[in-house]
Amino acid sequence: MIHKFLPAAIAAMLFSNSLTAQNAMPVISNLRATAEPGTREIAIRYDVTNAGNKNVSINFQLLVNDEDCSPVQCLEVFGDVGYPVKTGTGKLIVCRLVESFTDVNNYKVKLVAEDLQKPDISQLIREVSIDNIRNDMSFMSVKRYFREDSLQLRNIMQKIGKDFTDNKLTLQKQEFVHAGHVATNLVAMLPGISNDNKLFIIGAHWDAVKGSPGSDDNASGVAGVLEIMRVLSKYTFQHSVCFVAFDMEEEDLLGSREFVSRLGNDKAFQTGLMINLDMIGFYSVQPKSQVFPVELKNIFPAAYKEVSGDEFKGDFILNTMNENSQEAGRRFDSCARVYVPDLQVVSLVVPDDGKIAPEAFRSSDHASFWDAGVKAISIGDTGDNRNYNYHLPGDIMEAVDVPFVQRVVKALTATIASLAGISNAVIAEIPVTFSSCKPDARIYGSSSYNTYYLQ
């Protein structure tokens, strides 16, 4: 109740200080990785500090210094590694390989220092900004049909790409051709610190149908992805998180199909989860503002009872999952209930990957992932079962409830943070050199996402 009894400025200052202390990360400095010519050993020396001088966990990896950064199996690793490691200077790890070195330039060392105290997700979601969401939606709420609106398409694509790179993420453009038009998926990755082959994808389509500014469909979803990205990119996670703006969803899901085909049988992709945001902004507390299709009443009796008991108000977000994705879907339900209790969620587990009613359950990008056997859930406001502006010129900002979007984004931010394993951790990487080189290995921190770079 701090805000009730203190002046606003003082309360804000105290909250800011507590959040800063909570998010204080370990610091790795003076990192060196050296090897003697003709030997089988690498010596890794470093200093590490942590708030309150608390012990840290140190994870070490030797990687091949190439594009794939493949890990190298060490015969033996000993020294200041594992848990607990006391903070201080002059720390040493020795890695012994099976064979002697021929060229140390082929290797680099990755060191992860982790404070095992987890960040507080309830404080994390307070960073979700309603102003950011509103500004992003307003910028994207323009006609952007691929056959006619090339200037708007170019401006929005540049804006999304800049948002990714401004938050220190690497932008990848997946280009493909449809009807003579070069379409583009925009992809950014937040790398995790673990090698357990899990990838969490959160995406939304950025295209729109002809004649519609598409504020709900789907500027709302893209604004959600961008704000989740801004918040999460400041933190470190055990597992990798991928942010995607799909193109050509309105053209038979072509963008997400392209994305899926490029990942193919990648193990991390196959064992992770995709969360699709499509239309998360239309909200109404008016009775009978929500349609529940008659043909689905007997298939989902619990959901029908919940919606009808609320006088068919369009005041909830729908969480749609297939049978393969139930565990992840329930995690969203749980996170919404715990962290955003004023967000009402109705959940459906659809049989046979939604083929019982494809227009209702397979008309967005999550279906591309279901067809590839990948776990996926879709979060939305039920589209034309609630939004009377669906695919029409009336789908404008004034018809969207931005506070509702913010509540949905908070629940999704908490869900991804929970699933991907938010951590108080830092990563440092350095190439291996011969010991005679004695490189300058000072480390400089990046406040953007708590990863440390050599300079």
Major beta sheet summary: 8 strands, mixed
Shape annotation: elongated
Ranges where pLDDT stays below 50 over 5 or more residues in a row are 1-22, 437-455
What integer is the average pLDDT? 88
Helix percent reads 25-40%
Q: How many H/I helical runs?
A: 13
The proportion of residues in beta strands is: 25-35%
Query: Which strands sit side by side, in order, in the main sheet?
Result: 8-9-12-10-13-16-14-15
Global structural class: alpha+beta
Radius of gyration (Å): 24 Å
Number of strands: 20
Distance between the termini: 44 Å
Account of the 3D structure:
The protein is α+β, with helices and mostly antiparallel strands and 455 residues long. The protein has 13 helices and 20 strands. It has helices at 2-5, 8-22, 121-124, 130-140, 150-166, 215-232, 254-263, 267-270, 301-309, 326-339, 358-361, 366-371, 402-420; strands at 27-35, 41-49, 56-64, 76-79, 82-85, 88-96, 107-115, 170-178, 181-190, 199-205, 236-237, 240-246, 273-277, 317-322, 345-350, 376-380, 422-431, 433-434, 443-445, 452-454. The protein has an eight-stranded mixed sheet, sandwiched between helices. A five-stranded mixed sheet has the order 4-6-2-1-18, with no helix packed on it. Helix 4 (130-140) crosses helix 6 (215-232), helix 6 (215-232) crosses helix 13 and helix 10 (326-339) crosses helix 13 (402-420).
